[in-house]
């Protein structure tokens, strides 16, 4: 796979440099680590998001007004180190504490938890909300094992909105946890992405095959099958998603159809068309639909569908203004 | 002519040289670790370990050390701060965990090495919430530490201790093939992970093997 990079060991730093070259007016680098913060930090709970790099525009693209205040990123597909997380948290803390929001992966938990301990010793309070939206990554009985994928975006949105309202750390964490509990996703993989360092594919899949439920790092899914039409594929995804989420007629959702990297917007719209039809058929109210490639894995092909089940509190926070280079409300 | 038994301790500079050699060997094994990790993990273990030991080399070469504590702490902090991922915390703790709170030593001998790694093992278990048989680096580290302790209790030489630890780690790597993974991507494979060795355990074996090689080289040239 051809990749437009320089030295593979410089990809993360050079990505940040390029991002800041474009958005220098709004963000600044956190010294000595791979992290950024907003320039106009407010006197409120700081929201810090992050994870491994390679999933652009996650995570840097989601820092801004009504979203995250700081972003900590690790090496490609690897969690940021404890000192990286700690430095970003220190940079955004206004004295009202820091909320960490990130996907449920072992590496991220180890590093963020260690950072939280270091911060506690300095008197900076923190809370953590894990995103576990991928319903195919583990059955409900093992909810603790479910991984975070594109649903990150909805949970970041709610966390940012709540912090912007001036709520205290406990309250921001509580409503963000609710958002995480009400966010459900499922994906399908068509082609692997490649690691910038080694050029290796993240998984192998025959040309005419797809895999339902495959994770964004190539974690095994629930079913490998022959390629099918957009409508068939969307029906399969939606059936499982509605079944797992227990979202039923009369309820209200926001939808994200997320491309994994190389799947075109044309294809994503075709999928979204079917998602809308299915939800309408089931009398599930669509509050909002977003069709974008927010959570990618390099040039991985495929998509995920995310539903955020809304109540009045979540809806208000969902609709609150937000502005970042890759997300606006 | 000196015998193995006479190499009973290493000064801080020697410990530094030993870990520079370990780093070189770990980096040489990046393709092997990548291959092993790609089979059941996310394929980045070799890259991560290589990043960690490259940073360790950079930081070790920058300074002269008087205590072995500082050398080992430097190795651990380099890994912890540069690698990220689960491996960064776990392998960082493999070094930092053991010297945390340890009184300063100018020399490293087998009893001290056994004490350090025993504390590290405990710290890793607390941090990672894993135990023997979970298909993690502990599968190699715990038997290696056991062997270090046994040899230390029997007044063996540093080299003898490391030879035994390497053997224990090697056996642990073999046994890890039979385990179902409790952590990481391999966990979702269930029984499909059986037959594959754990990449982290393999790194532990490479670390002990190269420590042994370095001390053996010292014995031969002494």
TrEMBL record, chain A:
Gene Ontology terms: cellular component: cytosol
Pfam families: Dak1 (PF02733)
PANTHER family: TRIOKINASE/FMN CYCLASE (PTHR28629), TRIOKINASE_FMN CYCLASE (PTHR28629:SF4)
Keywords recorded for this protein, A-Z: Kinase, Transferase
Domain of life: Bacteria
Molecular-function GO term, any one: glycerone kinase activity
Entry keyword annotation includes Kinase: yes
Gene Ontology terms: biological process: glycerol catabolic process
Record-given protein name: Dihydroxyacetone kinase DhaK subunit
Claim: Iron-sulfur is one of the keywords in the record: no
InterPro entries according to UniProt: DhaK_dom, Dihydroxyacetone_Kinase
DhaK domain boundaries: 7-327
Automatic annotation (TrEMBL), chain B:
Pathway(s) of this molecule: Polyol metabolism; glycerol degradation
GO cellular component: cytosol
UniProt keyword annotations, A-Z: Glycerol metabolism, Kinase, Transferase
Signal peptide: none
Name listed for the protein in its UniProt record: phosphoenolpyruvate--glycerone phosphotransferase
GO BP terms: glycerol catabolic process
EC number in record: 2.7.1.121
SMART domains: Dak2 (SM01120)
Positions of the DhaL domain: 13-213
Highest taxon of source: Bacteria
Gene3D superfamilies listed in its UniProt record: 1.25.40.340
Record's subunit section: Homodimer. The dihydroxyacetone kinase complex is composed of a homodimer of DhaM, a homodimer of DhaK and the subunit DhaL.
Organism: Halobacillus dabanensis
Swiss-Prot/TrEMBL catalytic activity: dihydroxyacetone + phosphoenolpyruvate = dihydroxyacetone phosphate + pyruvate
One Gene Ontology MF term: phosphoenolpyruvate-glycerone phosphotransferase activity
Function field: ADP-binding subunit of the dihydroxyacetone kinase, which is responsible for the phosphoenolpyruvate (PEP)-dependent phosphorylation of dihydroxyacetone. DhaL-ADP is converted to DhaL-ATP via a phosphoryl group transfer from DhaM and transmits it to dihydroxyacetone binds to DhaK.
